[in-house]
Specification:
This is Type VI secretion protein IcmF. By secondary structure, this protein is α+β, with helices and mostly antiparallel strands. Helix content is 56%, strand content 9%. It has a 7-stranded mixed sheet. A 5-stranded antiparallel sheet has the order 15-12-20-19-18, with helices on one face. A hairpin with a 6-residue loop joins strand 10 and strand 11. Helix 3 runs antiparallel to helix 4. The radius of gyration is 64 Å and the shape is elongated.
């Protein structure tokens, strides 16, 4: 009893449980006292409960994992055994019959199944006993090796061990579990004994097969028991093989056993104890007679010796150790000999007893020699641990060996006694049971472990410890970081509190009706728990790890914020509603009605509708707040706080209701027509609480190319358009559908908004007759037309920045199924309300079809609601022309364009054809201008046709057509100026400036002359100026005007400027003056006649490049002269003689010598434009010539040449 109590309280499981219980008590009772400023991480009972559950859960999980791993390895091992057993049983060597094979296989499978479920251990009862039992895999494993017939199996069968499976399968069935031919597996409650086949040791029957089987056996051990494949090896040496064989045979056997041990050491990589069992000692003569009268307990004792074990100390040679210990065993037999002789009455048996010591001593030398050979150190990489030598006897069969008598018989040539010929003996086991249970099994822990596996495990353990340390360090760091973050967060929140308190105090002095004034306070209170230290809705992971304070602070901040909303903002909301109701204009009954309804909701929780309140308040704020505040986002802030105030509850005003004001407004509203009020209410309901069809937008109507074609004058995006309420589907699928319901709902609503009597009088009868619905419909259609007119006026074409874009726009406008055509057809459909769905070939959308199918059901529900049959059909008949009068007529031009007359395309097709033609011309113009050419003559007519077409189409087409024509014209002028100007500057301007810049005659007084060739290249017919003008500019210039000017484009602007054009006009004049004969060389023809000459001059000679005029005060005869002359000297000479004076004169040279000559004279006008007088004063002597040129344009005083400037850009 005490033993059971002791085992219970000091059981490992009990101790662990007690430790967990104590730790749980510490966590539960001491945990709340742990304080990590400013947190108490274990304050919550839930946290402590989870920690305690985690402690027990980890422990149970560890037990489960150990149990599962052992069970898994056990199952894998038995599965391997099953495969081996099944293979062996299916191909028996002994050749049993088929029935025996089948029965053996069946019993083998049953044994494996039982082994998979069986756990071994002591016979201890109870829960702890069951927990301490182990699977086969967990028991110590011992390997028995020896030569065939060495008594391995016999020793085990008669060992007295407990075989748990024997009761289920019978003792004979235990053998063969795991193989009958290769290895016997003996399952005891303390260990597993692997009785290997003797041929594994000797490998003499089939060396290759036996060696492979042995290697496979070692692999099996390594696979399933990697850390400690075996706990020891039992080596059996029978007396028979020790005494009967010669020295060579014994040495061969010893070497084979030593080789197997070496293979075990090397293959299993462990150091294991080796127990040497000298079996069949009963074959020593006198053994049975000496020990036959022993009791079972005496026969169970150990006969042999066990070496003392000191870890780390080297062992002596096993042979030497054996010799020392053997003498003690022999002395012990000699001490027992007198007693046994006295106790034995039979003389023959007494003789056998007397001879046993000599027989036993005869084993000393052979066993010593065998041990020395087996454990020769040179064989072992890891030397096994030699534990001892033990003499055993499993059963007493066979003929005993009497080496003494045999030696005498051989010496004296006599026969051995007859009793040596195999006297029958009873089978008993000697010296086995205690050896196994008390010595070998108790030393299961001496076996070393697989070094490689241990290194792996140590690495795993080190990794585990490192992971644990890293986890602990990481947790410490994480807690430190989290603590720091949360502390800074609390400091940040604490810093906001004084500001919030100050804002609260200041709000007490604010206007009690100003809701906007409290916005800073409310924003500050709502954001009290927020932090700039993190983004998103929740703090990052570095704030958590059990220390997060944000939720607690957020809860407290939310409570403060909600208290401010209720105590400070809600009263202002109620006062604002009352003031709005007071200030509502009598001219705006809808506003008064809605304000009254919202005001009453604050005093009737059952009728409170947060959606209606929010919609009214947003509209009120938007209309009363300054636009700057609305655009700054203040409206969104107000809406947000209102949503928070109305979360999951009905608002109740803290201010008493102003009943006189309510009565006054009701009285005023009762005198007004409800049509406008009903329509306003209808729009509100339909836009906020009804699924409307998609909005009409340019993107939806004109297709994906709409952004390339359209834009909005207001700057609104193309995705924003007309509400789905004001579309064809909206009219027939929503408005017409909801109108009867809403008017009936208004009748019900007015019973509490306006009071029951007023509501019945103003609405109910009109609902029944349909008059109210008719008026509401009229208002809707009027707004429908207004919305569409405003939208169409807001649509404009995309501005064109280049001629390429203009051409692309024209192509987009006129392409097949273009965005423009789609838009016109869509507008025509949406503005043709007189054509009902499905009538006249009109297509009905699936959305609208579903709505129409539900109208009849809704009408029936409406009739049940009002208690009377609603005359919806009469309403339709009465209002059948409203759509055509109010909408369709205004937008008839769109239907005209989109509708086909049946025999040809719609007019929009012909209209777009004009744009298509213009697109081709624009493309051609773009190519010509890019190539440096002129504008094609077909461009202006094509653009003019576009402008004419613009007058025949409605907006926004007219604007788009007009913009295309004018923009294209302006862009053409811009591109022409850029292209032609660039070519002009490159081809003429640069050369012109180099040829005439700073040269005479274009620069008076210059000593450098313009060469005749350069002058001709610029100004001659077909020259640079003339050719450029004729090829490029002439189609764009009106030369009939003076001065010349560029023709105006469709947009009313000229292509180029007047400065560049003036250069070409002057160049034409110069061409006409100097190249009158059409030549390529400039020339001047003139008649020169002397008019006067001083009397002191006797003769005057004028030589102009070889043409000579002589004058001697005779007749005044004119002389025709041409420059340049025939001589080609490029010289003009005037020589004066007479009066004895020296000859005097004047000489000029160069291509412009004649111009320089006349520059020396005073030019006086003549009687006609082509005549002038040149007066010279040379050395005080005067003379005058009359010069008549071939043109009225005087080449020597040509204004076009004096004012000429080289052209640059247009």
């Amino acid at each position: 009893m005490l033993r059971k109590i002791f085992s219970f309280f000091f059981n490992r499981i009990t101790l662990v449980l007690c430790g967990l219980v104590l730790l749980s008590l510490l966590v539960w009772f001491v945990g709340p006292l742990v304080y990590i400023k400013p947190y108490q991480p274990l304050e919550s009972e839930a946290v402590r409960g989870w920690i305690i559950a985690a402690l027990f859960g980890i422990w149970f999980l560890r037990l489960f994992i150990r149990w599962w791993r052992a069970k898994e390895m056990n199952a894998r091992l038995l599965g391997q055994l099953a495969r081996i057993g099944a293979s062996d049983a299916s191909t028996p060597e002994a050749g049993p019959g088929k029935e025996e094979v089948a029965e053996l296989e069946k019993r083998f499978k049953e044994a494996v199944d039982v082994l998979g479920k069986t756990r071994f251990g002591q016979a201890e009862q109870g829960w702890f006993g069951r927990l301490s039992r182990r699977y086969v895999y967990q028991l110590p494993w011992y390997l028995i090796i020896g030569s065939p017939g060495s008594g391995k199996t016999t020793a085990l069968v008669n060992s007295g061990l407990d075989f748990p499976l024997a009761a289920q399968f019978g003792k004979a069935s235990i053998r063969g579990v795991g193989g009958t031919r290769n290895c016997d597996w003996w399952f005891t409650d303390q260990a597993v004994l692997l009785d290997t086949a003797g041929r594994y040791t000797t490998q003499e029957s089939d060396a290759a097969q036996d060696s492979a089987a042995w290697s496979g056996f070692l692999n099996l051990l390594r696979r399933f028991r990697g850390r400690q494949p075996i706990n020891g090896v039992l080596v059996t040496l029978s007396v028979q093989e020790l005494l009967s064989g010669g020295d060579a045979e014994r040495e061969r056997l010893a070497r084979l056993i030593g080789l197997r041990l070496a293979e075990l050491c090397e293959g299993l990589s462990i150091k294991f104890p080796v127990y040497v069992l000298v079996t069949k000692t009963d074959l020593l003569a006198g053994f049975n007679e000496f020990f036959g009268n022993m009791t079972r307990e005496e026969r169970a004792q150990v006969w042999g010796f066990t070496n003392p074990y000191v870890e780390g100390q080297a062992q002596e040679d096993p042979g030497v150790q054996f010799r020392k210990e053997f003498d003690g065993l022999a002395d012990q037999i000699n001490r027992l000999l007198p007693q046994r002789l006295l106790a034995e009455p039979d003389l023959a048996r007494r003789g056998q007893i007397y001879g046993l010591p000599q027989q036993f001593v005869g084993l000393r030398d052979v066993v010593q020699q065998t041990l020395s050979t087996i454990f020769a150190s040179s064989r072992f990489k890891e030397k096994p641990l030699f534990r001892g030598v033990y003499f055993t006897s499993g059963t007493q069969e066979g003929m005993p060996f009497d080496r003494v008598l045999s030696a005498l018989s051989r010496r004296f040539s006599v026969s051995p006694p007859a009793n040596l010929a195999g006297e029958g003996r009873a089978g008993k086991s000697y010296f086995i049971e205690t050896l196994l249970k008390g010595v070998i099994f108790n030393e299961a822990g001496l076996t070393g472990r697989n070094a490689k596996k241990e290194r792996q495990l140590r690495l795993l353990q080190a990794a585990g410890f490192f992971a644990l340390a890293a986890g602990l360090a990481g947790a410490t760091i994480a807690w430190t970081i989290s603590h720091g973050n949360n502390q800074k967060y609390l400091d940040e929140v604490a810093a906001k509190v004084p500001t919030l308190k100050q804002a609260v105090e200041e709000s007490r002095d604010a206007d009690p009706e100003n809701m906007v004034a409290l916005l800073p306070l409310l924003n500050h209170a709502e954001s009290l728990a927020t932090s700039q230290r993190y983004t998103g809705d929740s703090p990052p992971l570095s704030w958590r790890y059990g220390l997060l304070q944000v939720p607690k602070v957020q809860t407290a901040a939310d409570a403060t914020y909600m208290r401010l909303l209720e105590d400070a903002w809600l009263p202002r909301l109620a006062r604002h509603l009352r003031n709005s109701l007071q200030q509502a204009s009598t001219a705006n009954p809808e506003a008064s009605y809605e304000a009254l309804k919202v005001y009453l909701m604050l005093y009737d929780p059952e009728r409170f509708n947060p959606r209606v309140v929010k919609a009214w308040m947003l509209n009120e704020w938007e209309s009363t707040l300054p636009p700057a505040l609305v655009q700054s986002g203040m409206l969104d802030q107000l809406a947000h706080h209102l949503d928070r105030l109305m979360e999951d509850r009905a608002l109740v005003s803290p201010i008493p209701i102003d009943q006189p004001l309510v009565d006054e407004v009701r009285q005023r509203l009762a005198q007004l027509s409800p049509a406008q009020r009903a329509y306003s209410r209808l729009k509100q309901l339909l836009t906020t609480g009804t699924a409307l069809p998609p909005d009409f937008t340019l993107v939806r109507a004109a297709g994906p190319e709409a952004p390339q074609v359209f834009t909005r004058r207001s700057g609104k995006p193309l995705t924003q358009g007309i509400s789905g309420l004001f579309t064809y589907d909206g009219y027939y699928g929503v408005f017409s559908h909801e109108l009867p319901k809403v008017t009936a709902l208004l009748a019900q609503e007015e019973t509490w908004v306006l009071g029951k009597a007023q509501g019945q009088r103003s609405v109910a009868n009109e609902v029944m007759t349909g008059q109210l619905a008719l008026e509401v419909k009229r208002l809707y259609l009027m707004e429908y037309a207004k919305v569409w007119e405003d939208f169409l006026a807001d649509v404009r074409p995309v501005q064109m920045a280049s001629l390429d874009q203009a051409g692309e726009q024209a192509r987009l406008y006129s392409s097949a199924n273009s965005s423009l055509e789609q838009f016109i057809r869509a507008v025509a459909k949406e503005t043709t309300l007189g054509q009902k769905p499905g009538a006249g070939g009109s297509s009905t959308s699936s959305w609208l079809g579903e709505k129409i199918n539900r109208i009849k059901e809704e009408q029936e529900q409406l009739s049940r609601l009002t208690g009377k049959r609603v005359n919806v059909g009469g309403l339709a008949a009465t209002s059948s022309n409203l759509e055509a009068d109010l909408v369709d007529f205004r937008f008839r031009e769109y239907r005209r364009l989109a509708a086909s007359n049946g025999s040809g395309p719609a007019p929009i097709t012909a209209s777009l054809q004009v744009l298509n033609e213009a697109a081709a011309v624009i493309s051609s113009a773009r190519q010509q201008i890019s190539a440096g050419g002129t504008v094609p003559a077909s461009l202006s007519p094509a653009l003019e046709r576009v402008r004419m077409e613009a007058k025949r189409v409605p907006p926004p087409l007219n604007t788009m057509y007009e913009d295309l024509a004018s923009s294209t014209s302006a862009l053409v002028g811009r591109d022409v100026r850029a292209t032609v100007g660039s070519n002009l500057n490159a081809t003429i301007g640069t050369f012109c400036r180099r040829a005439i810049g700073g040269r005479y005659p274009f620069t008076k007084g210059s000593s450098s002359d313009v060469t005749s060739d350069d002058f001709a290249s610029l100004f001659s017919p077909g020259g640079m100026m003339d050719e450029f003008f004729r090829n490029t500019l002439q189609p764009m210039v009106d030369i009939s005007a003076t001065p010349w000017r560029f023709r105006q484009g469709v947009d009313g602007t000229p292509v180029g400027g007047s400065a560049a054009l003036a250069s070409f006009q002057r160049a034409a004049t110069i061409r006409d003056v100097y190249f009158r004969a059409g030549g390529k060389v400039p020339s001047i023809r003139m008649d020169i006649k002397p008019l006067e000459m001083d009397a002191s001059i006797s003769q005057m000679v004028l030589d102009i490049d070889g043409e000579v005029l002589r004058y001697q005060h005779g007749p005044q005869i004119p002389k025709s002269m041409t420059w340049p002359g025939t001589r080609g000297t490029g010289q003009v000479r005037l020589q004066l003689t007479g009066g004895g004076a020296e000859n005097t004169g004047l000489v000029t040279e160069g291509p412009w010598a004649v111009h320089r000559f006349f520059d020396k004279a005073q030019i006086l006008p003549g009687s006609t434009p082509e005549r002038f007088v040149a007066a010279f004063d040379i050395g005080g002597r005067k003379l005058r010539f009359e010069v008549t040129t071939g043109s009225v344009l005087n080449p020597f005083r040509l204004k076009a040449m004096e004012e000429f400037a080289c052209p640059g850009n247009l």
